[in-house]
Amino acid sequence: MDALPLSAAIAQLQQHKDQQRWSLRDLFASDPDRAQAFSAEAAGLYLDYSKNLLNAETLQQLLAYADTAGLKERIGALLSGTNINNTEHRPALHTALRFQGEPKTEHEQAVADCRAQMASFVEQVHSGAWTGFTGKRIRHVVNIGIGGSDLGPRMVCEALRPWHNQDLTVHFVANVDGADLSDTIAALPADETLFIVASKSFSTLETRQNALSARQWVLDAGCAESDLEKHFVAVSSNIVAAQDFGIAAQNIFPMWDWVGGRYSLWSAIGLPIALACSFEVYSDLLKGANAMDRHFAEAAFAQNLPVLMALIHFWYRQCWGAGSLAVLPYAQRLAKFPAWLQQLDMESLGKSVTREGQPLPYAAGAVIWGAEGSNGQHSFHQLLHQGTDMIPADFVAIKQPTSELKEQHQWLLACCLSQSQALLRGKSLAEARKELEDSGHTHKEVHQLAPHKVIPGNRPSNTLVVEKLDPYHLGSLLALYEHKVFTFGMLLDINPFDQWGVELGKVLGTAVHSAIAGEIPDDWDGSTALLLQRLLK
Ligand code: F6P
């Protein structure tokens, strides 16, 4: 795709934006069916996108651009296993990880074999047949991994707490800061603890260091070298490195180069989920994701949830200068959802060149941030309401209560809806003045205070209603965002599947570590050299 259709589409959209005064209050007042018209539903998720600064014409232009950008063909290329990751010459087949029914391709057969290996392992651990070096059953599992080998399973395990197996506790360690590992294992009995070393590459420094320390901890607790295999399994595509570490071949679960790290929770990287809950729960998660995959592949773009969300985000990013997106899940158990989404979105869309390596003259990935509602209301929501930047927000509401405290769930939903309503409505100067006058303030006080009480409003949001926070709907929700991110990447013609910037950090990290033991190279910048000297003093 050359740059012309994109620049022409953005120019047209910009003109469309500049031609009118956008008022959410007016848009709702003039169309009683707006909420109905600007909504869509699939795989147990309902998307209300009516609180956005757009009209039918906007949508029509955005949808036309999706066609020009060849989105249909790109989705086909993704799902059929074309080398869509063109800088690493490989497909991105995370959708194959959640295939249903009988395996039809080589990839699906590999996935089916891996699922069987996982199911058998989970059965052994849950039944107590798998024992540690003293013959006791495993009571604790510690997943050692980082990035995609941590965030997905960690978030899902927390989200699915009601499904947890009561006889086993799953823990997560990611940070190379030794405090992470030592705080986690401090109270654990080594002979009842099993480590999963989760690393696609098996060369990530954080994971390697934590795994080495964990190994030593188990040995120090009295485990013989020959019994280490009872305490370490791995998930990796680097079988040789995992075996060199001392993990028995039969205890290595495969990963494949056609699965990106940030899209890998559906692979054996999801083993902690199956262990924390059950293999059935993990399977239901896959089913929900698969339902969203089918919707993404088949639904017309005008009703396609990931496509709609990507187009709306594209509209704000290109024409409204929105540099960030707030993600606000109104569910305590989804507290780690924004962190998972940050990696997915920002590692995928943090790019500055097109697929062909041409400088990108448009805005690509935005800053993704957020926290669980309602906690965020009492910290950063002030900036959403009255700050100088317009920050679009995604609200996620769970329909069915997530606890026995049903009345609190009603309050939670009230908080969620009232926040998006407040962002939409705001408070005009006249309303602020009247409020102050009605509460008996003097004329002078009204004059002084009213400007501070004005809330611009007209701030856009999506609301996603999830039927229930269960494995199926969670799978569907996560796949929705995966496809949204992919679509956004295709609209800009970038490769959302590589991460060369992260690679540079990894290389320099090793160089700095070498300098700690040796000489500081002459060609270093003065700041890094001085900081290192200071830290080592
Ligand atoms: O952070 C960069 C990254 O390459 C991620 O894409 C990946 O999820 C993470 O490192 C961990 O990599 P690995 O699974 O190979 O240890």
Short note summarizing the structure:
With 537 residues, this protein is α/β, with parallel strands linked by helices. The chain is 49% helix and 10% strand.
Quickly list its features:
six-stranded mixed β-sheet, binds 6-O-phosphono-beta-D-fructofuranose, 49% helix, alpha/beta
What does the model show?
With 537 residues, this protein is of the alpha/beta class. It is 49% helix and 10% strand. It contains 21 helices and 11 strands. The protein has helices at residues 3-18, 24-30, 34-37, 56-68, 71-80, 106-127, 151-159, 178-185, 205-220, 239-245, 271-276, 279-298, 305-319, 337-349, 381-386, 406-425, 429-438, 443-453, 471-492, 500-517, 526-536; strands spanning 39-42, 45-48, 140-144, 169-173, 193-198, 232-236, 252-254, 324-330, 367-369, 393-398, 461-466. The strands form 2 sheets. A 6-stranded mixed beta sheet has the order 1-2-11-10-8-9, with helices on both faces. Helix 4 crosses helix 13, helix 12 (279-298) runs parallel beside helix 19 (471-492) and helix 17 crosses helix 18. The longest helix is centred in the N-terminal third of the chain and has 22 residues, at 106-127. Bound molecules: 6-O-phosphono-beta-D-fructofuranose (F6P).
How are the SSEs ordered, and which strands pair?
Layout: H1 3-18, H2 24-30, H3 34-37, E1 39-42, E2 45-48, H4 56-68, H5 71-80, H6 106-127, E3 140-144, H7 151-159, E4 169-173, H8 178-185, E5 193-198, H9 205-220, E6 232-236, H10 239-245, E7 252-254, H11 271-276, H12 279-298, H13 305-319, E8 324-330, H14 337-349, E9 367-369, H15 381-386, E10 393-398, H16 406-425, H17 429-438, H18 443-453, E11 461-466, H19 471-492, H20 500-517, H21 526-536
Parallel strand pairs: 3-4, 3-5, 5-6, 6-7, 8-9, 8-10, 10-11
Antiparallel strand pairs: 1-2, 2-11
Bound molecules: 6-O-phosphono-beta-D-fructofuranose.
6-O-phosphono-beta-D-fructofuranose (F6P) binds next to loops.
